[in-house]
Amino acid sequence: MQAFVLIQTEVGKALLVAEAISLLPGVLVAEDVLGPYDVVVRVEAADTTELPGVVQRIQRVPGITRTLTCQVAAH
Length: 75
Description:
By secondary structure, the protein is of the alpha+beta class.
């Protein structure tokens, strides 16, 4: 299963946060973006029981102030 994690960061930290997150297990891509969120991340987990662990690793990255996880609908 996959999900998007939308991230708000401390001012000026978006690029550093995106770079750090891109190295974490389960992260497919992490991009710094413009708009209401500073970083958008696409993650992958084997199932819904593993997804919280991936998100928790992301939330531990310094410089993050808020996250919103959006699970991709199964087809």
